[in-house]
Structure formats: structure tokens, C-alpha cells
Amino acid sequence: MAGRVEGKVALVTGAARGQGRAHAVRLAAEGADVVVVDVCGPLPDVSYPSATEEDLAETVRQVEAHDRRAVSAVVDVRDLDGLRAAADRGVAELGRLDVVVANAGICSPRAWDQVGAEVFANTLDVNVTGVWNTVMATAPHLVAAGGGSIVLVSSAAGLKVQPFMVHYTTSKWAVRGMAKAFATELAQHAIRVNSLHPTGVATPMGEGDMQATLGAAMAGDPRLAPMFSNLLPVQITQPEDVADVVLFLASDESRYVTAHEMAVDAGVSEF
Ligand SMILES: NC(=O)c1ccc[n+]([C@@H]2O[C@H](COP(=O)([O-])OP(=O)(O)OC[C@H]3O[C@@H](n4cnc5c(N)ncnc54)[C@H](O)[C@@H]3O)[C@@H](O)[C@H]2O)c1
């Protein structure tokens, strides 16, 4: 039986680990070749460890284990020229580009009065400008391919307010708006653009130090703790739970889904 994205080529940012790796590997398992992009180096302001080039090589290995081709690039999504070069090389080697998952992001929770100008700017640079750069570097290839699907990774924090994240919440609401704006203008090229809104996910970002950092901020106003409660009886979701939904948005099964806010949030946004 043909895979659900057989013959397509995808580009995933933040693909060295976590959700980005899960997306790349899930798409490969269903027949896509993949361009995997990651900075593989220090991330500004965050309390969790950085990804490495070995992590990105492991993603390539897992894609190739599905007999699909992978092209990898160590690029910071803040670098538009670097992203263009990676996308162009990917298309030169893999022949086309149909699917883009703008997944790279950072999160550094802290109380509102602990968010300095530099922290605010860093989060907006990676989470908003980095996503815009990703679309600008790749959309021309989707136009050339005659259509495609772009998924912009936001967060439940882009659907509802999440406390102790003024900078992150601002960035993820911006991504939600950006998806609709691109969807409007790219529709004439048969390109769909949707935003994706996960709740907490078990990745280096979502676990460990992050929980401790959030807990420390919460001590400043414990009344707000229930805002992180999922409706469904799950504490934290897995990267593969999100990858299943990315696969749906990448595939032709969602061919008339665009400008949509896709929540994979266990109902946290309704709590
Ligand atoms: N983990 C969660 O609880 C959660 C919840 C909702 C949304 N999200 C969002 O999901 C996305 C993926 O997060 P994750 O949980 O897999 O985190 P993660 O930290 O485990 O992985 C993120 C990857 O992105 C890369 N990256 C970060 N900044 C980059 C840059 N400037 N250029 C290139 N690569 C960069 C990192 O090196 C890393 O490999 C992010 O956009 C995040 O905001 C995460």
C-alpha cells in the first residue's frame, strides 16, 4: 500500500530532536523524502540543553531507516540566506518540495517583570522571524511544484493565554496570525497553510528543567497553575502524538483544510 505522503518531499526545521525529529521520521515512514534543518547549537535564554550535530545525524539515520532520502543542513532559522541555501540544496538533491513544517522554536518561561528586552527580542526573532524566514525560503519551491502544505508550529499558548510567558505567548499568537495571512495569499497557488497548537510535549523543551523553571515562576502566583491543566486525563503528550497530526496536514487527506488552527492540546485551551 502506498504511503500517505508517498512521492512528496518535506522540509522540517528544528529536526535534530523532539517534535521536529518525530515529524521528519513520521513523514519518511509514510513515503516522503525529507530536508532536515537545525541550528545544532546554543539556544538563547533557555534552561534546557541544546541539540547537537549528532542529534541531527540521528534524525537522518532514522529517516534513512525507512528507505527514504534525507538532506541535512545546520542552519539557524534567523538566517534567511542560510535557509534559502538549505531549501535550494534540498530541492536540487530531492527534486521538489511539497511540505514545510516550521517547527523550530524556543521557550524560556519567567514572570512578566523578569522578561528583559533582550529575552523578548530573542524569542520573537526565533519563534516569529524564524518562521517567516522558513516560509519565505521555501514557498517559491511549493509554487513551482504546483501546490503544497505548510504547517506553522504555534502552541496552545497561541490559542489561549499561558502565564509566565508574555514573550512566548506573544510569539505563538503571531505565528497563528501569520499562518492565516500566508494562507490567504498562497491559496491561489494551491498551497495550504495551517497553524498547529500542541499542549505540553515530552521533549527536552517540555520536560525536566522547563517544568522546574515554570514551577519557580508559578510560586509568584499559584492561582494561575490550573491554566496548564489538560481536559483529557494526560499530563504530557508525546512527540508522535503531534507528528500524527502533522502527517494529516501534510497529506492530501487534508486537501481542503487551510487557514485552520489545529489544536493537539488535549483540551487545555478550553480549561
Ligand atoms: N514541548 C512543548 O511542550 C511544546 C508545546 C507547544 C509547542 N511547542 C513548540 O513545538 C516546537 C518544537 O519544540 P520541541 O518541544 O520539540 O523543543 P526542543 O527544544 O526539544 O526542539 C526544538 C529544536 O529546534 C531547534 N531550534 C531552536 N532554535 C532554533 C533556531 N534558531 N534555528 C534552528 N533550529 C532551532 C533546536 O536546536 C531543537 O533541536 C517549538 O516551536 C515549540 O515552541 C512545544
TrEMBL record:
Gene3D superfamilies, per the entry: NAD(P)-binding Rossmann-like Domain (3.40.50.720)
Superkingdom of origin: Bacteria
InterPro entries, per database record: NAD(P)-bd_dom_sf (IPR036291), Sc_DH/Rdtase_CS (IPR020904), SDR_fam (IPR002347), SDR_subfam_1 (IPR023985)
Keyword NAD in record: yes
Signal peptide: none
Record keywords, A-Z: NAD, Oxidoreductase
GO function terms (MF aspect): oxidoreductase activity, acting on the CH-OH group of donors, NAD or NADP as acceptor
Pfam families recorded: adh_short (PF00106)
Annotated family: Belongs to the short-chain dehydrogenases/reductases (SDR) family.
Name used for this protein in its record: SDR family mycofactocin-dependent oxidoreductase
Species this protein is from: Geodermatophilus nigrescens
